[in-house]
Amino acid sequence: MAQNPVYDMIVVGGGPGGYTAALYAARAGLNVLVLEKLSAGGQMALTETIDNYPGFAQGVDGFTLAETMQQQAERFGARSEYAEVTALDLTADLKVLQTSAGAFAARTVVLATGADPRPLGLPDEEALTGRGVAYCAACDGMRYKGKTVVVVGGGNSAAEDALLLTRIARKVILVHRRDTLRATKIYHEPLRQAENLEFRWNSVVTALLHDGQLNGVRLRDLTTGAETELPCDAVFVSVGRQPATELVAGQLERDAAGYLVADETTRTSLPGVFAVGDVRTKPLRQVVTAVADGAVAVHMAEQYLAGGAL
Ligand code: NAP
């Protein structure tokens, strides 16, 4: 730690919320470091086209938007370090973060660690990941060009994934545990009209069938209890996300689903620690709400650093 300065702010996670916090912090004259595991953007960087982030009339690809956000923050002096955080001590005034690149200390910490795809929790699911089990249609869809694929879930992600896959795969089967989609109405009609898409309502996947490579799924009809086998080349799991908060368990208050409890101020249960983007409790997880969080977090952090309100 000796060779590293004490930062005014360390941002953990380089997604849209994290880099917006870094931008606002740098522009406010704070000495700010972003710790990012791989590359900027988080989940956003895996999104093929973002059509609901204002300012891009023709949409923008997530990877480009991520890189641009990073460059913008760095233009004002924010620093990025590619390192994995392995432990944090957030309780004292001086927060200490252990990482794969050594220890770092800061007076405030912004947690922008996001949320990862939730698995189905079925036997062999992990071993089959990349062998027919996938969690991101935009990333892995092309591997199943002309094939039969199953999408599991009924939210916006499942709807988007299913629509994308109808343009790539021969056949898409959308398996949902209820008889109606949770996804917003805008997706319903295009899904119904897709000729190569079939719905399996009130159904869940109970087994992944394989010979080392996925070749089908077993489905249970929740209304009749009947089980059937459905041959397919891939299953895209799109059943929501789980927040990356394990490292701070026990230090910060989390809700039942594991999200960091923080309101619109982004303040967590510990002074000087803020939660932005998908990782915090909030009604809508979007790029646009993540970037808003980043700006608010810096506003609150400045008050905290000035010795004012927490
Ligand atoms: P989500 O909205 O939480 O939906 C998860 C879906 O998976 C639900 O339909 C749920 O069923 C189902 N599900 C959950 N656990 C399951 C299990 N074990 N087995 C079978 N099905 C299961 O998650 P999401 O679609 O990943 O979206 C996450 C957030 O990102 C949401 O806030 C969403 O609005 C946002 N998002 C927005 C856009 C956009 O605006 N363009 C695009 C993508 C994501 P139930 O319906 O029965 O609960």
Rounded to an integer in angstroms, the radius of gyration calculated over CA atoms is 21 Å
Say what oligomer this is. single chain
The portion of residues assigned to helices is: 10-25%
Total of DSSP H or I helical runs spanning 4+ residues:
7
Q: What is the fourth-level CATH superfamily of the largest domain?
A: FAD/NAD(P)-binding domain
Distance between the termini: 27 Å
> H/E order of the elements?
EHEHEEEEEHEHEHEHEEEEEEEH
Which term fits the overall shape? elongated
Structural class: alpha/beta
| Beta-strand share of residues | 25-35%
What is the makeup of the main sheet?
7 strands, mixed
According to DSSP, the number of beta strands is: 17
- Bound ligand species: NADP nicotinamide-adenine-dinucleotide phosphate
Q: Which ranges are low-confidence, i.e. pLDDT below 50, for 5 or more consecutive residues? A: none
Look at the structure and give the CATH class of the largest domain. Alpha Beta
Assigned CATH architecture of the largest domain: 3-Layer(bba) Sandwich
Task: Provide the number of structural domains.
Answer: 2
